[in-house]
């Protein structure tokens, strides 16, 4: 919560420099960009909450030559047959 509060305060201060001109805007902009970078780069679950589902799904896809040859992995069979994998 504290990092997001800091980010909000820095964003507000950066926006206020448009109303109240400031000589050295980089003093506010650099920490704002640094905090944004840290929050994005080091967050948990990088890739989203459904990353593991997509990783599993795409790891089960057969290659195009195998698919054309009629092979499938059983879970995603385009023929519509229900099989147990």
Topology:
Blueprint (H helix, E strand, L loop, with lengths): L1 H18 L6 H16 L9 H9 L4 H5 L17
Features:
mainly alpha, single chain, 4 helices, 56% helix, 85 residues
What does this structure look like?
With 85 residues, this protein is mostly helical. It has four helices and no strands. The longest helix is centred in the first third of the chain and has 18 residues, at 2-19. The protein is rod-shaped.
- Would you tell me the overall average pLDDT? 77
Q: Helix proportion of residues, in percent?
A: 55-70%
Estimate the strand proportion: under 5%
| Class by alpha and beta content | mainly alpha
Largest β sheet strand count, sense and barrel closure = none
Radius of gyration, whole Å: 24 Å
Distance, first to last CA: 44 Å
Shape: rod-shaped
What string gives the helices and strands in order? HHHH
Sequence stretches where pLDDT stays below 50 over 5 or more residues = none
Based on DSSP secondary structure assignment, what is the total number of beta strands? Answer: 0
Number of helices: 4
């Amino acid at each position: 919560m504290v990092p997001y509060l800091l980010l909000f305060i820095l964003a507000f201060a950066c926006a206020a420099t448009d109303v109240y001109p400031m000589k050295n805007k980089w003093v506010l902009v650099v920490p704002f960009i640094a905090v944004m970078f840290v929050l994005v780069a080091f967050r948990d679950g990088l890739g989203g909450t459904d990353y593991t589902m997509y990783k599993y799904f795409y790891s089960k896809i057969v290659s195009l030559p195998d698919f054309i040859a009629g092979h499938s992995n059983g879970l995603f069979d385009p023929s519509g047959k229900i099989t147990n994998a």
